[in-house]
Amino acid sequence: MKERHKFPKPVAFNTNNAIDRAMLNFVKKRNFSGYVKKLIIADMKTKGIEIPNGKQTPVNESKFERLRRELADKRVNDDSSSNSDT
Fold first, then answer.
1. CA geometry: angle at 48 spanning 33 and 7, to 5°?
2. 14-28, pLDDT tens digit by residue?
3. What is the spatial distance between Cα 81 and Cα 20, in angstroms, rounded to a whole number?
4. Are the C-beta atoms of 28 and 84 separated by less than 8 Å?
5. 3 by DSSP, 3-state: which?
6. How far apart are the C-alpha atoms of 62 and 14, rounded to whole Å?
7. Is the pLDDT of residue 81 over 90?
8. Is the model's pTM score more than 0.85?
9. What is the DSSP letter of 51?
10. Dist CA 22 CA 50 (whole Å)
11. How far is it, in rounded angstroms, from Cα 75 to Cα 8?
12. Domain residues of the chain, as ranges?
């Protein structure tokens, strides 16, 4: 059985309600999922909740693949910090 990594959370807008209609018109042409996620992150920050970095961690990677990725990340970080010294 395939493991689920995405969990939809539907939002309903009542078109008979003026406030809901206004919100729906406001978000109609936006990336709704991205917009809601940004709002959630902003709310988490105001509540002092630590936000993890945005890197995705592959779930089914082998130890070798994880070590290779971590070393590559370290090289990038080392390169960027040495460039800032100049």
1. 30
2. 999 999 999 999 999
3. 48
4. no
5. coil
6. 47
7. no
8. no
9. P
10. 32
11. 36
12. 18-51+58-84
